[in-house]
């Protein structure tokens, strides 16, 4: 089934890339994450080949090896995306001898992997990735096999059997808009109203960005399509383009603040942050999900197989509990993607059912409620509500 999901993810993304290009959904402002600016680096082979914490002799050995490296390169982790600001701050506080180098916070999942390839063998390569399943499941040759200490407690359905990646957190696709300016939105047909001229946006390219990929799938479902019939969604976006309401502007905090993108299809955790920031400016930003088209995406943790700091990468990989502590979940409005996610040897259970923001164009995979659990695109073959993973 994993192989089937990989094929489905890649082929569906390719179909959408070609089809949506005709609707003008291309993005000419994509950030280049892959410029090579690093210096050649020699890594510790023992750390680079470690597949579990036991290869370091335990946590003390792993920490010592990571501190000896003295650095960790992360990519695509904006501070207001899923509370990563707190995660990074917490890591710095706990491991002050390890300098965190933050690269291109707005990179898509594809751009993350591209940066690893381009900077291979240098100290500029990312050590770790945070990826959507569509990219993660088709890029395993670029990942190191490493199973965190509580690996066995992660459901098989949301992890790679060889330890190449595991699901970290999830969100629900939604439509958000400036309610002060546009009033209520009851259905997607409302989006063809002339008052929305040039302001309705997907968040990125469907072939590269999870927000756009899954935003399209939500619209397709609402338009009467399903996983085997993508045409209704394509027809709807063509209608949006023809009436002048679809914009290809890259969605950012700035375009939302300015009103340039007044209606945005994005994750609930992004929408929650837009809502919070705009409220402080006196703007009423609303967002809604749809019971008959709830698309859920899972994001995954992975280690660059050519990580310049392999021990630090493995230390980072094993502490996702830092962003799942209940008080941080409330701040970050995010939903963990695995059953009882953990620090090496520690367990915590989150209590908040939603997630938080950034405009990052993340590549993802989906689970649509109402689909049969064995549909190709359902991560983890989940047949019940996605909250069963929390």
Automatic annotation (TrEMBL):
Residues spanning the signal sequence: 1-28
GO MF entries: thiamine binding; thiamine pyrophosphate binding
Comp. bias intervals (Basic and acidic residues): 327-354
Alphabetic keyword roster: Signal
Keyword Translocase: no
One Pfam family hit: SBP_bac_6
Transmembrane domains' residue ranges: none
Single GO BP term: thiamine transport
Protein origin, superkingdom: Bacteria
Residue ranges, annotated region (Disordered): 102-121, 327-390
Keyword Transcription regulation: no
Assigned GO CC terms: outer membrane-bounded periplasmic space
Name of this protein: ABC transporter substrate-binding protein
């Amino acid at each position: 089934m994993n192989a089937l999901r990989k094929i489905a993810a890649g082929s569906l993304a390719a179909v959408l890339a070609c089809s949506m290009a005709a609707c003008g959904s291309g993005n000419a402002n994509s950030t280049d994450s892959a410029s090579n600016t690093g210096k050649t680096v020699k890594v510790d082979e023992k750390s680079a080949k470690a597949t579990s914490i036991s290869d370091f002799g335990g946590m003390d050995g792993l920490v010592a090896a990571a501190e000896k490296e003295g650095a960790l390169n992360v990519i695509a982790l904006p501070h207001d995306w899923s509370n990563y600001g707190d995660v990074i701050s917490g890591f710095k506080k706990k491991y002050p001898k390890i300098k965190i180098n933050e690269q291109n916070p707005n990179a898509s999942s594809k751009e993350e992997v591209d940066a690893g390839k381009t900077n291979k063998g240098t100290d500029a390569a990312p050590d770790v990735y945070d990826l959507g399943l569509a990219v993660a499941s088709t890029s395993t040759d670029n990942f190191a096999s490493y199973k965190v200490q509580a690996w066995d407690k992660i459901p098989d359905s949301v992890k790679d059997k060889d330890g190449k990646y595991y699901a970290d957190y999830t969100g629900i696709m939604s439509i958000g808009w400036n309610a002060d300016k546009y009033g209520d939105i009851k259905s997607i047909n409302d989006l063809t109203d002339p008052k929305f001229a040039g302001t309705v946006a997907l968040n990125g390219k469907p072939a590269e960005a999870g927000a756009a990929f899954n935003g399209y799938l939500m619209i397709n479902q609402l338009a009467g399509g399903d996983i085997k019939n993508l045409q209704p969604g394509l027809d709807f976006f063509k209608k949006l383009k023809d009436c002048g309401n679809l914009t290809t502007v890259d969605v950012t905090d700035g375009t939302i603040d300015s009103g340039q993108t007044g209606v945005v299809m994005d994750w609930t955790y992004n929408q929650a942050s837009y809502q919070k920031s705009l409220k402080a400016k006196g703007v009423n930003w609303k967002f809604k999900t749809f019971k008959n088209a709830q698309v859920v995406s899972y994001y995954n943790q992975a280690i660059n197989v050519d990580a310049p700091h392999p021990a630090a990468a493995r230390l980072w990989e094993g502490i996702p509990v830092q962003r799942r502590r209940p008080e941080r979940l409330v701040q970050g409005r995010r939903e963990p993607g695995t059953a009882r996610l953990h620090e090496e040897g520690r367990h915590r259970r989150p209590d908040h059912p939603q997630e938080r923001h950034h405009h990052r164009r993340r590549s993802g995979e989906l689970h649509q409620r109402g689909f049969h659990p064995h549909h190709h695109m359902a991560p983890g073959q989940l047949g019940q509500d996605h909250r069963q993973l929390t």
